[in-house]
Amino acid sequence: MKSPNTVPYRGKINSELRQKLLGQKSMVMWFTGLSGSGKSTIAHAVEEKLYELGRLSYVFDGDNVRHGLCSDLSFSPEGRAENLRRISEMVRLFLDAGIICLTAFISPLRADRQKCRELIDCGRFFEVYVKCSLDECERRDVKGLYKMARQGKIKNYTGISAPYEEPQEPDLVLDTCEQSLEECVDATVDFIMAKMHGTR
Questions:
Q1: Among 34, 53, 109, 198, which residue has the fewest nearby CB atoms (within 10 Å)?
Q2: Burial 112-131 (b: 16+ CB within 10 A, else e)
Q3: What pLDDT, on the 0 to 100 scale, is given for residue 158?
């Protein structure tokens, strides 16, 4: 529960001024897809490309967040929902700082992704569906997590013992079974730059 005794303090330097200082528009590219679909790989490669272009961005990676901010949460539906709520609050702060946010989370349920959009959105939340077949994701699984999930050693594993609901109207689709990493990165960067310059 929010404390009734706290009031947000607003300084003179706002998000618009920070974005002007950085020469960019802040936004969030919300990568969603099965484990092994390529979310983190694409997000970090996009970050590198944006850096080369002189743009400041930051990757919020699912595993990294689970080691820190959300290390106390389970993978139950409730735990997943709270995980995404905390991430959304953190992303809001980075957006306010003028940064391009690249989030790489399975975020399997449409309702939870919609809540993230509603919490974050100022017309700057863009859902990116990293599409990949379950068979291909399992083939890529160097950690053997899918195998352990099929053996019942991992509970609530998305795609095996927990559902993944595909986005119905994503802002961008990256099919990693059909597109190369370079093609996915170029498509994402082109999308970001078009939004930044109001051409899309």
A1: 198
A2: bbebbeeebeeebbbbbbbb
A3: 92
Give the domain range for residue 134: 21-196
**Beta strands in the chain, from DSSP E residues, in sequence order:** 27-32, 57-61, 100-104, 125-131, 172-175
- Cβ neighbors of 135 (< 8 A, separation 6 or more) are none
What pLDDT, in 10s, does the model give residues 119-162? 887 789 999 999 999 999 999 998 899 999 999 999 889 999 99
In-domain check, residue 68: yes
More confident site: 123 or 166 = 166
Looking up residue 130, the CATH number of its domain turns out to be 3.40.50.300
Beta-bridge mates of residue 130: 174
- What is the pTM for the complete model shown? 0.88
Q: Which of 37, 57, 88, 107 is catalytic?
A: 107
- For residue 107, indicate whether it is catalytic: yes
Q: Is residue 122 part of a domain?
A: yes
Tell me how far apart the alpha carbons of residues 14 and 121 are, in angstroms, rounded to a whole number.
17
How many folded domains does the chain comprise? 1
